[in-house]
Amino acid sequence: MSNSFAVAFIIIGVTFDLLGCLGLIRLPDIYNRLQAATKSVTLGTCAILFGVALEFGIINSGGIKALICILFVMFTSPTAAHALARGSHIRGFKLWEESVVDKLKKDREK
Questions:
Q1: Which band of pLDDT confidence, cut at 50, 70 and 90, is reported for residue 103?
Q2: Nearest 5°: phi and psi at 95?
Q3: 20-29 — which CB contacts under 8 Å span 24+ positions?
Q4: Residues 6+ positions from 77 with CB-CB distance below 8 Å
Q5: Where do runs of H (alpha helix) occur along the chain?
Q6: Alpha carbon separation from 28 to 11, 51, 75, 94 (Å, rounded)
Q7: Is residue 94 very low, low, confident or very high in pLDDT (cuts 50, 70, 90)?
Q8: Cβ neighbours of residue 58 under 8 Å, at least 6 residues apart?
Q9: How far apart (Å, rounded) are the C-alpha atoms in residues 56 and 58?
């Protein structure tokens, strides 16, 4: 029974990773691409790792390693995307012309 749950989580994770890759290709600027990559790929990778943990057994060493990797991805991926977006904005990469709000620009002008 847990094998079917593990396969389901892995399939869901691969689907989210695929959608994140499509977002990298289709979206217009670096900020939208970072948002798509961070949200979908983080969720997809965590789902794949959780499926692996279910397959190995959560109490087993492989399952514990997968759960530790989930925590690592959950902390580092959003932090890295934030740093990349902030650095890109400070460096002068323009937002998409149809973007509505630029809160960092407003904060830096104060």
A1: low
A2: -75, 165
A3: 20/44, 28/96, 28/98, 29/93, 29/94, 29/95, 29/96, 29/99
A4: 38, 41, 42, 45
A5: 2-26, 30-56, 61-91, 103-109
A6: 28, 33, 26, 11
A7: confident
A8: 64, 67
A9: 7
Query: For the chain, first and last CA: distance in Å?
Result: 58
Per-residue pLDDT of 38-76, as tens digits, reads: 888 899 999 999 999 999 888 888 899 999 999 999 999
Domain extent listing, the chain: 2-109
| Location of structure tokens 């620009």 | 105
Q: Round to whole Å and give the CA distance between 43 and 74.
A: 8
Which amino acid belongs to residue 93?
Answer: F
Q: What are phi and psi of 102, to 5 degrees?
A: -130, 85
